[in-house]
Design brief:
Strand content: 25-35%
Largest sheet: 8 strands, parallel, barrel
Low-confidence stretches: none
Length: 961
Amino acid sequence: MIDGKRLVIWSSEFHPFRLPSPDLWRDVLQKMKASGFNTVALYFDWGYHSPKQGVYDFTGIRDVERALTMAEEEGLYVITRAGPYVNAELTRGGFPGWLVNQRGRARTDDPAYLAAADEWLTQVNAIIARHQINGDGKGHHGTVILHQIENELALTTPAQRRYMDHLYTKARADGITVPIFHNDQGRNGYWVPESSTVPNVVKGPNDLYAFDGYPGGTCTVAGRPTRESAAPDWGFYGPGGAKGGASASPDTPGFLAEFGGGWFDYWGSNGGYECNAIQRGRRFQRVFYGTNLANGIDIQSFYMGFGGTSWGWLAAPVVFTSYDYGAAISETRALRPKAEELKQLAGLIASVPDLAGMVPAGPATASSPNIQVYHNRSPESDARFLMVTHRPSNAATDDRFTITADLPDGRYSFPQSEPMRLDGFDAKWLVAGVSLGGQRLVYSTSELQAAMRQDGGDLMLLYGRTGERGETALRYAAAPTVTVTEGDVRHRFDAARGDLVLDYAHVGLARLRIDGGGRRPLTLLLTDEAGGARFWRHDTAAGPVLVRGPALVRTAVAQGSTLALTGDTAAATPFELWAPARLRTVTWNGARLGLTDGTAGSRRTTRPLAGPADFALPALASWKVKSRTPEAAPDFDDGGWQAIDNRPYASITARPDGQPNMLMDAYGFHEGDVWYRGRFAGSSNAERIRLHYGAGGSGLVQVFLDGRFIGQDETPGGLPRPITTGVAELALPEVARAPGEHVLSVMVRNNGHNWDLDADDFHKEARGLISVSIEPRTGPSFAVPIAWRIQGRRGGEVLADPVRGVANNGGLYGERVGWHLPGFDDSAWTTATLPAAETQPGTSWYRTEFTLDVPEGQDATIAIQLGDPARPRSPVDYRTLLFVNGWNMGQFIAHVGPQRTFPVPEGILNHRGRNHIALAVTSDGKPGNALETVRLVTLRNVKGGIPVHMVAAPSRPSELR
């Protein structure tokens, strides 16, 4: 209940930290609202805000207060998910890097961990409290309605119970007054409220029980989706008990805090996010989300609504840069077809508030045994929701059937003409016995997308599958007058019941007006699915409006007699509007529209809305290159580097006795690459080197001796939980046995720390070098002593670039001296062309500049593409860090894949000015293992969008700390 109204919470997830252009947060939130969501769920990444213990930053791209304010301004409720642990396929699951050095076990009541967690929660809870719908007691109000205190904590020991009690108490002490929950990893019945009487649950201090679920199949190599599970019954119609889902806590609202709005993709995968978007796409949503709603899951949040980009070093070892997720809003910020269907389903929820709080009604039977009907009713109004699926729901069959049920207006078998059809993996969301404005809908085999009052009458929009017949019955006191203004609609009046029965096909758009019969005038629009997707409903101060045509209607604001609309067009588009008559002046993106009377009460533009203009992208032809790896040079000055010593060791990874602590985290380096340099005396025993290292999924170690490359090793990718440590054994060249001092240079690429999903301190697995030994090839082992140093005079917890933050601070020499920044002077570098004919072992840097001129008033997504996009993997072996205007926008690994195309958001990319690309290309130097062609591509282009400013950050080396 919010402000006295019972609501279905229809939410989707958005991570502002995965979109480092804060102006575009509003773009995503507007698209969520326009797609029918009434709520957004926000994760907060502790490590994103805290490079060092005691240091917190909520400015710029980390300004979560700005995100909460935007959500309020766009009319969205907010579910806050503050951690301390979030998972989210983030490095360390969202923990800060410095926490890896803490010996106390995380996610327990260990005092050191609780002190660290409190440090974070004190900061973030204060921000959230100011944005609660209940207010913070100091005059601040917002739209936060629910607050999560932990995520997927599967261990339920006394230490975890004390930990959960602490988190709840801390949230309340910090002024959080909205209901508190924990998200159960599946349907375990963990951390249900104390009020639950269900056996075998684990109780906790939460106000609500919430759980998650990711049913569905996988994508094949060919990119065709497979279906591996039927829609689950996790509520009223399910098995009950702790494993039944919502029934673990029957006296609190059914709450799915995460439900599969897609799925993440792995290094080296074959499926890809487009396949995932289809697999968990339109029919998946209709079947699974509808089954949840029918089962009393009145709070649903889909993970993800917009996935975005795990730019820089945000990602956990399991995932590559793109976090598109197959979500309704793609990484390019385009609305996928599945977003159109979500808008239609959300339209039903918004139009029939009676859906909230429904309980099972009497039996509703289908004439086919292959069809099941969930039949619910509102305890207050007796309105009905009939959810129709196959039995099982994923059966790919084509059935024709009628439904028989006792409805509020009588017992019916419908449709009365020809049977309904349910084809393949599909479902129908039907309502009956519903009062909509001044109308009474007895039943309909079409699905309701919009119902609104307008100028003393009513307007309803119904849709169905293309070509299928539809039947709708409306109740009247006497026979009304029916005027069909467009399309083929047959009608008859059943005087005995008082039912006007309409029969039609879902083809194109049919329009009719119904007058008299004891009710207000009704304009009825009947269309197919594709036609329904062209409609956008918005509420204004003057009443609701319905727009037909544009690719997106972002906002609708009524002031006086003027209706101001904003939105996007992907091509020249006809425009049609149903709005209160008092709104005589209509503007579109600030320009006044010329309107004429349309059909069925609408107004139309005299000419189509303009689409976007095409624009050319420059070729990336003028490159500069620096083909050397300074850290590997024997005469490189490492005198200021930190000496490896025996500081405390907190990792869960075992190391040999007597070895110093070599882990990168122990010296303050938590993200990206790290360099080590070691000195040893030449010896006849120096025949091979053995390195135990930790590098994350698809990580890398490279080894140089006296400036000469001697080999590399990689950890595997392509697994849900990849093997993230490895052992490399390399033969040493003859020079290692020569008398005198020799220098080892070792680079480890850390592709992220493990998450801590099982609360086993897995995030503390070693990164960097664990141990190194120089040994004879055979015979008794004799370790050659090595004196080691690790890069830099200070740890990585003191950021060289605090504006771009933790995710953008790697450990390459070029990063430390600003080779990735636009303002670096590369005039002394060598001119290069791509594709590169050859390369050197180690890391070579390439730089180029270009100018963009995207037309004003257009919103485009431009990407950088490496090599052939039709080949997820290359036969060549190299990897590239991609810097755009100084921002690390991702990593390409040619022989692993699958990502070759890297979208760069406006604000990072200057759409109307100068831009700079720097590529750090790491290779073993073998023939062919060199940088491929690099080009710019346009992935999306619309007329519209919102104003976007460049994100201010250091552009010259002198501006780094």
